[in-house]
Design a protein that fits this description.
- This protein is α/β, with parallel strands linked by helices and 811 residues long.
- Helix content is 28%, strand content 18%.
- It is built from 27 helices and 32 strands.
- The strands form 8 sheets. The chain has a 7-stranded mixed beta sheet with strand order 6-5-20-19-18-7-8, with helices on both faces. Strands 28-30-29-32-27-31 form a 6-stranded mixed beta sheet.
- Helix 10 links the parallel strand 10 and strand 11.
- Helix 11 (256-269) runs parallel beside helix 17 and helix 14 (312-319) packs across helix 15.
- It is globular.
- The two termini are 40 Å apart.
- 59% of the residues are buried.
- The structure holds ligand MGD (2 copies), iron/sulfur cluster and molybdenum atom.
- Iron/sulfur cluster is lined by residues 50, 52-53, 55-57, 80, 84-85, 87-88, 212-214.
- It is an enzyme of class 1 (oxidoreductase).
- Residues 43-99 form the 4Fe-4S Mo/W bis-MGD-type domain.
- Pfam families: Molybdop_Fe4S4, Molybdopterin, Molydop_binding.
- It comes from Pelagicoccus mobilis.
Length: 811
């Protein structure tokens, strides 16, 4: 198959394009691939990263009369070289949905009514002032870096309370624990250049053709140039990625653990593992009785012994993948003459053994020596535009501090208190609640021990995306003294239960900084004004902090009695940025980021100075200054040829090694069964995920007519034979029932994704068909990330008689 990047992206976007062609253009907003130099008069162009996925493409934004009117792919950006996927071309439209939130709204007698910002800030501050320990912030991998940093400092440095966690807990947490327990420091060693260099690319249960399309196009493009690259899709259902793959290995959900162990087994049995690599760069580990992040030491001999049972035949039995294909994988990893890149995302992370599965993937790359050269890389892809930048690097997780440090360690707290100029002991040593626990506590009455009474939600939509929603969200209704604050841009499933809604400025309506999947930090400037009274998320946090300061909350003062968010102009005078009119008198993003930057030096995650980011289309950290004063990025970490932190002559150095000897850890982790599996009552697997056209809960993409029309509502994908057995035809309404409830939606047969017999798949973008009402809430014991990818369900034809519900009632 020969397809270049542009053709691949056009082809994958065809469904959207066909539907879009039938629709009138979206107001004055248009898609254009025009070069900036040929743009119509009066347009002002500026750069920004795309608002959507972790690929981190850059767009050029065309502005006229305070409105975004055109978008083009940024030719100067290495990530996308001028290309965009269908969401990227439409990204400007997210600002202009008709129902943007433009005023603060407070619930009075059951109804949300407009109030002033002054009153809104008072309400939030008073809730916090009264019960600071029962307050939590639920944030996002779509927070900009300064937004996350401000929230982090406010709660951990100001309130001495660690109840802050991002939606990335639902997404990247298992990747974090995987990297930490392997390299001793988070985030990938490799980068997107690996895709240009690999001979084999293995996708371990992800769907980059739809979820990271521009990135995937990079490898597809190589074929059009006559280069050979073998794509292997290991998945639980056929997707668009499968169409472009040379091999498709379908496995039973959760049995990826067995496949990875099967590969390691063969490498050892056949003596094809990389002995010298292992001796020079690796130690062995296994779990303790109760799972823990760093487990206990093991040896090569013990590791080999534990792998003995994982013969290709046994792996076939567990996974359904033939012994022959397991041998094929074993042989590929055993070869020294090829380079192998593994990619993974939610199939591996949203897994009750997600940490273990991450460890195993790192493990087979280390064991086989497929690490440390461009193209030889185990790489976890990030989903959100700043899950790396804001959740992982700023450390907005309940146990973390900025720069890869943790609250539990006294020296880490002390360093943080020093940088923040706080009195010693201000930061609490006890980790806060992780996401699922936070919402569980919020949805439990105070009498029954529910000790979170106020949550402030920023840039995420938990009422739609938490697992097992009734338990973790809807239960809030009727509980007295629970107060939900939601900062949002549109009405959502979360604002439905909110007691206070704060209207936010979004994307290019404010300054921002994101960090993408390959350690690339990207900056943009505000280009248009937000609608009505919508304001920056960062401002909201600072304004509440200031109100608390005025109320005399001691935590809002630094060691010298100054405000913890004291920002100064060039003359050194404090600027009252908590007054909205003065907020843009200084570049708040720049000042916060420069303060944050100090933390990034603590674990060699050095981000570039703000002014360097302004000039670049993203820079990959560690960004180091050379003798000639030039700032240089680091594409490949730990590798001497690229990473200046590696000592001369070492070749490869894991300088944050858990064992303190510059070595990485290879883990043994057994296959063990999933938290819930099909049985007599619920005989099918239910899996959930995404579609090309929509971003998560569709709040933004469903307001863009072209995208909405291309994919108007959710559906259940099933195998035609399963459907026939149940008397279901294409488009019929089916009932999907799990132990947690049931939901009805139309069946889609032979559609985009094709699940095997015994499995159904439902995308979660549709607010009117909330699949998370019935998904499982079980979590990985180490990362605390939920498993959305599998639970047991039964599916049957909807009993006739009842009038069918409207599928998209808001249209
Ligand atoms: N268009 C679009 N793109 C997006 C997003 C979006 O909403 N829309 N969201 C972004 C975000 S935040 C994320 S996290 C990514 C998600 O990106 P992906 O992880 O690629 O996508 P999903 O649809 O969540 O997951 C689908 C995959 O899960 C695999 N799977 C199911 N069960 C198992 C299992 O037991 N083991 C393994 N190994 N795999 C399994 C299936 O094989 C399937 O390929 O997408 C990002 N990109
Ligand atoms: N069933 C199922 N559930 C899942 C998953 C799954 O695979 N299956 N995946 C999980 C994963 S990986 C993820 S990442 C999560 C994503 O889950 P969420 O983060 O809950 O989903 P989003 O739709 O991205 O929510 C972002 C919200 O922020 C709003 N917003 C946009 N810009 C701004 C802004 O500048 N300021 C403010 N204040 N708000 C803004 C948007 O309108 C939107 O409502 O879902 C998780 N849930
Ligand atoms: S691949 Fe991701 S970052 Fe690139 S244009 Fe598409 S949605 Fe935006
Ligand atoms: Mo995600």
């Amino acid at each position: 198959m020969s397809l270049d990047r542009r053709h691949f992206l056009k082809k994958t976007a065809m469904a959207a394009a066909v539907a879009a062609a039938q629709q009138r253009a979206f107001g004055k907003y248009e898609n254009t691939e025009l070069d900036a130099t040929t743009a119509a008069d009066g347009l002002k162009w500026d750069k920004a990263p795309c608002r959507f996925c972790g690929t981190g493409c850059h767009v050029r934004v065309g502005v006229k009369d305070d409105k975004v009117v055109a978008i083009q792919g940024e030719q100067l950006a290495d990530v996308n070289k001028g290309l965009l996927c269908v969401k990227g071309y439409h990204v400007g439209g997210i600002l202009y949905g008709k129902d943007r939130l433009t005023q603060p709204l407070l619930r009075k007698n059951g109804k949300l009514v407009p109030i002033s910002w002054d009153e809104a800030i008072d309400v939030v501050a008073q809730r916090i002032y009264d019960k600071p320990d029962e307050f939590a912030i639920y944030g996002s991998g779509q927070w900009t870096i300064p937004e996350g940093y401000v929230a982090q400092k406010f709660i951990k440095g100001g309130l001495s309370n660690n109840h802050i966690d991002p939606n990335a807990r639902l997404c990247m947490a298992s990747a974090v624990t995987g990297y930490l327990s392997t390299h001793g420091v988070d985030e990938p060693a490799g980068c997107y250049d690996d895709l240009d260099k690999c001979d084999v690319m293995i996708m371990w249960g992800n769907n980059p053709a739809e979820m990271h399309p521009v990135l995937f196009s990079r490898v597809i493009d190589r074929r059009s140039k006559g280069e050979e690259v073998m794509l292997i899709d290991i998945g639980t259902r056929r997707t668009r990625t499968t169409e472009y793959s040379d091999e498709y290995l379908e496995f039973k959900p959760h049995s990826d653990l067995a496949i990875a162990n099967g590969i390691a087994h063969l490498l050892i049995k056949n003596g094809t593992y990389d002995k010298s690599f292992v001796e020079r760069f690796c130690n062995f580990r296994k779990d303790t009785d109760t799972p823990s992040l760093f487990g206990q030491p093991s040896t090569f001999e013990e590791y080999s012994k534990l792998l003995e049972p994982y013969t290709p035949e046994y792996v076939e039995e567990l996974s359904g993948v033939s012994a022959e294909k397991i041998r094929m994988l074993g042989e590929l990893f055993g070869r020294r003459d090829i380079r192998i890149t593994s990619l993974w995302c939610m199939g591996v992370n949203q897994h009750t053994r997600g940490t273990n599965m991450n460890r195993l993937l790192h493990g087979i790359h280390m064991l086989s020596g497929h690490f440390g050269k461009p193209g030889d890389a185990p790489t976890s892809l990030t989903g959100q535009p700043s899950a790396c930048g804001t959740a992982r690097e700023v450390g907005t997780l309940a146990h973390a501090l900025p720069g890869g440090r943790i609250v539990a360690k006294e020296p880490h707290r002390k360093d943080c208190e020093r940088i923040w100029n706080l009195p010693e002991g201000r930061i609490n040593a006890k980790p806060g609640y992780h996401t699922v626990k936070m919402w569980e506590q919020f949805c439990t009455s105070t009498e029954e021990g529910g000790d979170v009474s106020t949550i402030w939600v920023q840039v995420t939509n938990p009422g739609h995306t938490l697992p097992n929603l009734k338990k973790h969200f809807t239960n809030k209704e009727g509980l007295k003294d629970k107060f939900l604050i939601v900062s949002e841009v549109y009405p959502t499933a979360s604002t439905k239960l909110a007691d206070l809604v704060l209207p936010a400025a979004m994307w290019v309506e404010k300054n921002g900084i994101y960090g993408n999947s390959e350690r690339r930090t990207q900056q943009w400037f505000k280009m248009v004004n937000p609608p009505g009274e919508a304001r920056d998320d960062c401002w909201m946090t600072i304004a509440v902090a200031r109100r608390l300061f005025e109320m005399g909350h001691p935590g809002m003062k630094d060691k010298d009695g100054g405000f913890i968010f004291e920002l100064k102009d060039d003359s050194g005078a404090e600027v009252p940025v908590w007054e909205w009119e003065r907020y843009y008198d200084v570049n708040v993003d720049k000042q916060l980021y420069e303060e944050y930057r100090e933390f990034t030096y603590m674990k060699h995650k050095d981000v570039a100075p703000y002014d360097e980011l302004v000039k670049a289309r993203g820079l990959r950290w560690p960004v180091v200054q050379r003798a000639n004063g030039k700032w240089e990025e680091t594409p490949f970490r730990f590798m001497e040829f690229s990473d200046s932190y590696v000592e001369k002559g070492k070749e490869l150095q894991f300088y944050h090694s858990v064992t303190g000897d510059d070595k990485a850890l290879i883990w043994f982790c057994p296959y063990d069964p999933p938290a819930e599996a099909p049985d007599q009552d619920y005989p099918m697997w239910l899996s959930t995920g995404r579609v090309l056209e929509h971003w998560h809960t569709g709040t933004m993409t469903r307001r863009i007519p072209q995208l909405r029309n291309a994919m108007p509502h959710a559906y259940v994908e099933m195998h035609p034979e399963d459907a026939a057995e149940k008397g279901l035809a294409n488009g019929d309404l089916a009932v999907i029932e799990t132990r947690r409830g049931k939901i009805e939606m139309p069946v889609w047969l032979n559609g985009r994704g094709r699940p095997p017999r015994g499995t159904v798949f439902v995308p979660f973008f549709d607010e009117n068909l909330l699949i998370n009402d019935i998904t499982l809430g079980e979590i990985d014991p180490i990362s605390k990330e939920p498993d959305y990818k599998k639970c047991a369900a039964t599916v049957y034809k909807r009993p006739s008689g009842k009038p069918a519900p409207a599928l998209d009632p808001t249209r």
